[in-house]
Design a protein that fits this description.
With about 260 residues, this protein is of the alpha/beta class. It is about 35% helix and about 25% strand. Strands 8-9-10-3-11-12 form a six-stranded mixed sheet, sandwiched between helices. The protein has a four-stranded antiparallel sheet with strand order 2-1-4-5, covered by helices on one side. A two-stranded antiparallel sheet has the order 6-7. Helix 3 runs parallel beside helix 5. The longest helix has 17 residues. It binds adenosine-5'-diphosphate and magnesium ion.
């Protein structure tokens, strides 16, 4: 028997009023796979991540995580919309890092990383602090653990946000344009942390990015989104090297011209 995908979007649609943002999306992501999502603004990239993080509800279809429905639960042999307890339990496998860092401004880097492990996972403070210190060390910020977000650069804040997401021990990490709000010279340090995470931890990763070089080097697969659908997908060498679809070619040309 083949292994169940870590994530499965099964014919998922999302609408806002008359606007269809995701249009029957089906996508399987294998355990440990690194998938990049690229595509024009408004094509539904962020929506995919927000639905997997259950920050949005879906209109049609089912999202599965490790063979278990996320958006639904089984009742009497049928799938019914999931209740909050079910969603919370399955969602605990997923962590997300946002473009705008979203750190708690009144908490130090360390406090940011222990808050949820203590309140949500019920970890002992001492254990949570130990783990947070390890993670802050991993992202190169041991020295800054008692700094507040306002005392950190954007790149440092984003590295704290990555450590904070890891503190919840997710199996799946979602990154939504995590370097887009950064000054160019700070992008590299954040990408370096993501690279290291990918190498050293058994994480499944789904990332929306405009960093085509990084997507090419880091991903196992790249999905090009257009108007709420996957227009083309493949290994980065193929998708960047020999895109088959005219829309993909247009998009890549425009992105490359912009530098
Ligand atoms: N809460 C919302 N209400 C109405 N429309 C939304 C909402 N969130 C996103 N959209 C629309 O959905 C489409 C896809 O958005 P998004 O997933 O953020 O695109 P991307 O991340 O690819 O730029 C856009 O047209 C956007 O305006
Ligand atoms: Mg977006």
């Amino acid at each position: 028997m083949t292994e169940k995908p870590m994530v499965r979007f099964d014919n998922v649609s999302k609408r806002y009023g008359a606007l269809t943002v995701l249009d029957g999306l089906s996508l399987d992501i294998a355990r440990g796979e690194k998938v990049s999502i690229i595509g024009p603004s408004g094509s539904g990239k962020t929506t995919v991540l927000r639905m997997l993080m259950t920050l949005e509800t879906i209109n049609d279809g089912v999202i599965w995580v490790e063979g278990e429905p996320l958006t639904h639960m089984e009742k009497g042999g049928k799938l019914v919309p999931a209740n909050l307890a079910h969603i919370r339990r399955v969602r605990a496998k997923i962590g997300m890092v946002f473009q705008s860092f979203n750190l708690f401004p009144h908490m130090t880097a360390l406090q940011n990383c222990i808050e949820a492990p203590i309140t949500v996972l019920g970890m002992k403070r001492k254990d949570a602090e130990e783990r947070a210190a390890e993670l802050l060390n991993m992202v190169g910020l041991s020295e800054k653990k008692d700094h507040y977000p306002s005392q950190l650069s954007g790149g440092q804040q984003q590295r704290v946000a990555i450590a904070r997401a890891c503190a919840m021990r997710p199996k799946i990490m979602l990154f939504d344009e995590v370097t887009s709000a950064l000054d160019p010279e700070l992008v590299g340090e954040v990408l370096q942390v993501i690279r290291q995470l990918g190498r050293e931890h058994d994480l499944t990763m789904l990332m929306v990015t405009h960093q085509m070089g990084f997507a090419k080097e880091f991903s196992d697969r790249v999905c090009f989104f257009y108007q709420g659908k996957i227009c083309e997908q493949g290994p980065p060498g193929e998708l960047f090297g020999a895109p088959k679809n005219e829309r993909t070619r247009q998009f890549l040309r425009a992105v490359l011209e912009a530098g």
